[in-house]
Amino acid sequence: MNVYLGYVFGSVVLDIIANIFLEMSKGFKHKVWGTLAVLFIMGAFVLLALAVKGIDLFVAYTIWGTLSIIGTALATRVLFQHRIHLVSWFGLAILIFSILLMNAASTLPAA
User: Fold this and answer.
1) Given CB 3.0 to 4.6 Å as the disulfide criterion, which of 1, 33, 43, 77 pairs with 24?
2) Structure confidence by residue, pLDDT tens digits, 22-77
3) DSSP letter (8 states) at residue 2
4) 92 Cα distance to chain centroid
5) Domain boundaries, the chain
C-alpha cells in the first residue's frame, strides 16, 4: 500500500468518527460532540486532499465515500442500534462493486 492510499484510509476513519460524533450531538444540541464532528471532518478532508496528490480524484473520492458510508452504517448499527434493511445491504454491495470498477478503470489507458 502506498502512502496516498494510507491518507485515504486515514480520512475514512476520521470521517466515520466524525459521523458518530454528529449522531451523538443530536443535531448539535450537544455542542462538544458537534464541535468534535466538525473538527474530525476537517481532518478527514485534509487527509483526502493529501491523497489526491498521488491518486486520481475520482478514485480517491470513490474509495473514501464508499468506505465511509459502509463504515458509518456498520458503526451506527453497533453503537446506536440503527437498522440496516435488506435493500440497504444491497446498496452497500453496489457501492463495494463501484470501488472495484473505479479501481479497475484507473489502470486502463485513457480513451
Assistant:
1) 33
2) 999 999 999 999 999 999 999 999 999 999 999 989 889 888 998 999 999 999 99
3) -
4) 12
5) 3-106
- The secondary structure of residue 110, as a DSSP letter, is P
pLDDT for 109 equals 79
The grid coordinates of residue 89 equal: 445491504
Q: Which residue type sits at 90?
A: F
> Helix H segments across 1-111?
3-24, 31-51, 57-80, 86-106
Distance CA 77, CA 100 (A): 25
Q: How far apart are CA 80 and CA 97, in angstroms?
A: 27
CB atoms within 10 A of CB 8: 23
Nearest 5°: phi and psi at 58? Answer: -65, -30
| pTM check: above 0.70 | yes
Between CA 4 and CA 34 the distance in angstroms is 29
